[in-house]
Amino acid sequence: MHGGVGLGERAGQLQAAEDLPAAGTEAGEDPAARTTHRDVIDRLRRAILIGALPAGTRLVQADLARRLRVSVTPVREALRDLVGEGLVDFDPYRGATVHSPTLAELEEIYEIRTRLTPPAVQGSVDRTTNSDLAEAEALGAAMEATSDPAEWVDLNRRFHAVLIAPCRRAHLLEILTRMSDLSTLYVGVSLGGDSGRRERGDHDHHELVSAYRARDVGRAVTVSLKHVADTLDDARAALLRGPAPALTGGALDGDAGDRSSGPDL
Fold first, then answer.
1. How many helices (H) and strands (E) does the chain have?
2. What does the pLDDT look like over 218-233, one tens digit per residue?
């Protein structure tokens, strides 16, 4: 858990990832291609978050395409998106690897989030609409209903994005969105560190929506900061304990019975 890259290096990786040939994403793109692209992203993200693709794993596009039973194009696009989410590292010479979380990166990301969350929440509470809050509640309910930790992590990111989106400070939102993306792996790490983490997270989400509905800025900030601190504490404890086993089973391969091209993920 002591490898990985810093936030400065990540900017370079994002630029390098831009050099990957892109599949079309304009209005004329085949809807089936978009569906395949999304499916590949979801399956790779889940495999990374549950530990089925461990930190440092080299991600060979042709191998992943064979195991997922798709062409190389959606795999290439998925890897580029996952670089942006902080789950994959990309180097033009070494290729793509699963990002290795580090204590230093965790502390840096969450220091930034702790400093920038209050003004974002302050700028959002009075601007959220009933539609925004209904969407947040639906995402919260889906988090409580799912048994898949990777889905919970993705829903969690979307939940918080809905609540801070009404903030009209574009640069602040851009930075926080980037930190939220980079936090994805660490939220997953935190789930493996404390059996009560999800329950506390779900409770915080109820509290947040309640505070937003009441237009109670102070309470919304307090709950948000507690939520961030809880994730930081659990992720830090998990990293200090060392690598944990995969959170759950599940196969990456298109056919769960096919083991010839890789281990059961």
1. 10, 3
2. 999 999 999 999 999 9
